[in-house]
Amino acid sequence: MGKKQTHTFGFELSSLRGLSGVYVFRNANGNIEYVGTCKDIDDTKENWKSRMQSHHSYSGKKLTDEVTFMDVFIPDQSINNRGLLILEYLLIWYLRPPKNLPDGLGTHWRYFYWSWSEETVKAVARDKYDSIITTSVEEYLRSFRIKRIHRAYESDGSFTKYGSIREVGFIDESCLNNSVCTCFHCIARERHNVIFNDD
Ligand SMILES: [Zn+2]
Question: What are the respective helix, strand and coil percentages of the chain, to the nearest 5?
Fold first, then answer.
């Protein structure tokens, strides 16, 4: 039997074990590339390792080499499937990540149309999907705790397969709340504003 790999395409995922969440793939500049959901169930059904493997192997590959880290929104774990999907779709509505939008998907993703205002999105989330957001979407997103997992690399640039396991806690990214701030939420807000002012 071979040595068991600690990393999956550079990600050491043990801090996410047993946790369901919504992940955001980001590149070295911090740009947002893809949003997805994982319910960590067990080793045979869906789990973080299998999610990452599926993103790497299938033809519409999302886990490309540009992805250098991911931010994982960890909701209260009593959240149900629907609640997790609402968070995922809300992030996709808010950010329109380029890798979530294959050619031809021009108007919406699942529950939310691009053309809708924030108030409409929240009303639909509430009336159709029982998901109540009482603040702005930005404030709602700020209410979640985030784990940030960086990909690890060997000195030759290949992804680490065998390395140390370490617990990754929740990030506490300070926000300057101005135009030069590079925290997740300010980058997300800037992207959102560019997208929506383009329409
Ligand atoms: Zn900020």
Answer: 30, 20, 50
**Residue 184 resides in a domain:** no
Ligand 1 center to 185 CA (angstroms): 6
- Rounded to a whole number, what is the distance in angstroms from the first to the last CA of the chain? 56
Q: Is residue 8 part of a domain?
A: no
pLDDT for residue 3: 81
Q: Which of 98, 45, 157 is nearest to 54 (CA)?
A: 45
How many angstroms separate the alpha carbon of residue 173 from the centre of ligand 1? Answer: 8
CA 188 to ligand 1 center in whole angstroms: 9
Least confident piece of the model among 59-63, 137-141, 174-178 = 59-63
Residue 28 lies in domain: 14-174
Q: How many domains does the chain have?
A: 1
pLDDT score, position 157: 94
Residue 70, pLDDT score = 98
Residue 199 has pLDDT above 60, yes or no: no
CATH at 144: 3.40.1440.10
